[in-house]
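FORM 7B - TANDEM STRUCTURE REPORT

SECTION 1: FIRST PROTEIN
SEQUENCE AND TOKENS:
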Amino acid sequence: MASGRLSAETITSDGHEAFAADVEPGDVIGEAFAFERCDTPFEVVADEASEAWCFEARDFAAAFERHPAFAKAVVRAMCRRQCRTLQRMSEVMTLPMAGRLEAELLRLAACDPSGRTIGRLPTHRQIASRIATQREAVTKELSRLERQGAIRKERHGLRLVGPSWNP
């Protein structure tokens, strides 16, 4: 991934979309398909204007084997994604939905220099997929946060307001 931001989702056995990963500059996505036959349904969507490099599976595997610097960069990208995935898994296992939503809002706001503005808020369905809950629960909790004055809607996004959002 050269620039921008992507989201990767998979489809569960019962047909539901499940968030898999954010893809940021420097990340690699789909590398498993270069090495193994992988039948898992997988969809990657651009969340903003993005630029990415695409490789044929055989070319990717060959570059991985022939160029140690390339292989090292790929492994580092995979490790970064694994760390983010483990963080999300621990949140799903230990935090109530409201806590997972707050953690996700902080992650989304981290893209902004102030760390408090989400320029383009994903849909409630997309947020629900990211935090393993239902869209209705996200809508209800965002409304509660707005009533409390913890968030303020701004155009297509929102702003985190108040000291409770300090990292």
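SECTION 2: SECOND PROTEIN
SEQUENCE AND TOKENS:
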Amino acid sequence: MRAPLRFASAAALIACCSCDLLRPAPFSIAGWAPGEGRFGPEDDIRVRVSFSEDPDRPSVENAFSITEDGVAVVGTFEWDGPTMSFSPVASPRGRSAYRVTVGAEAMSLRGVSLERALEARFSTRLEDCRPRLLSTSPPSGGILDQSLGSLSLSFSEPIEEAGFRSCLSLSPSTRGYWKLEPGGATAAFAPSSPWEWGAEYEVSISADLRDESGNRLGEATSFRFHVGEDRIPPVIVGADALDRSGGLASSLAPDDPADSTVTENALWESGWRLRLRFSEPVRLWTLASRVSCDGGPPLELETAGDCSDVAVFAFVEPPAWGGRFAVRVRGGFEDARGNEADGGASYRILADGPGSRPPRFVGVRLPLAPGESDPADRDLAAFALDSPYETLLVSGDDGRYPVGEAVPTSIELYLELAAGGGLDILALMSSFRLSSTNGALDFSARRVSLGGFDYASPYGPWEGFAVARVDGILTNRVEPGVVSIELAAGLRDSEGNASPSAQRLELLK
């Protein structure tokens, strides 16, 4: 049984070896020059391609191509064994990007096709970043108010002086002269005859405009301007709410007094600021006195400078949570040329942002039998702020609150907080008060801590609220009275949101 197995294995080995011996050796590119990268004027950039064996030269020459900035380069071939050299008919112009290819249809003398086509690139440019148009004067849609005023185009880097004029055009055609300003990054046009007053002109910039390294603009662009006097008044084009970091929080909808609908912008947060946007730069000093807040705190201008097309205003103090107010912008503010705005705008705001809600005292829970050893027998009772004057059954029985005895006990405080806010223990400690009329009972707080009773789950209806525990000593008295549990005005959460007034729960003993 073993001999046939050995024979089969040997036969398989011979078959595999025979296949390897009969398979033709691959025909491949052994190397090429000048290689990938960027080359300067002093470098040798002659193109040479070496093959793994003598090739069929006509097939290689037909499969070879080279482009200079996308344009095919014409040249001649020279051979030295398996190495082909290419010489262009015209001298390389420099500052160009080259692409060299040898297609898979190239063959060896044995008729074996090229194993892998060559596609390679190299460059004689100093850098490869495209130039960008940064700004124009006048700006797109702007006014040129001088009959012999000049145009200027500012780019991200110096542009090629030799051919830039052919890449710039004016419509309608205007006599004049283009020149590069010192530094080469700004092109200026000076007319030799006056512009046509009241006409609109268009400046077109070709995609073939190049920087000093030969990089093309890549995308044609244009802009328009008018010649004449600027008599157009500025207008408000929009208003935004900015968050504490200056980012866009929301865009505000104006309230049109001419219709019967009140448009209100809700969810305003206390730390937000107001940004007004204009159709053109306005004189800020003419604007500041024309922006007011009805029903809310005053606004002050934060944007510095003489003129700007945006103006940011901040409230002198945070608006009251839940408050409604209107920001009004009256007409009469001016643009840089003194044109007065004909009208203004009004924005109604509701300051009910979830992140600005002040701490709300919801209720308390305390044991009526704190002395019971079994937590299940401690008779926990909850009292809500929206149900005042409920009866607090402070019994003098054993395990409860014997009259005249100082009994260690704890009180859970439940609070609703702003989104993202947490309890501030120090603020809560200084804010908490428990008192009674007629000397009905005394309570001395000893410690305030986060979380509720460690022997009971949170009170079900208030499970989603923040909870703190006040540990202290309660002394029961014989006399009846009104027990007040209070959190003073100004109670702050971890985000600084403060309650505007005291919050008090009153119970009957």
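SECTION 3: OBSERVATIONS ON SECOND PROTEIN
The mean pLDDT is 91.
The longest helix spans residues 2-22.

SECTION 4: SIGNATURE
Preparer initials: ____
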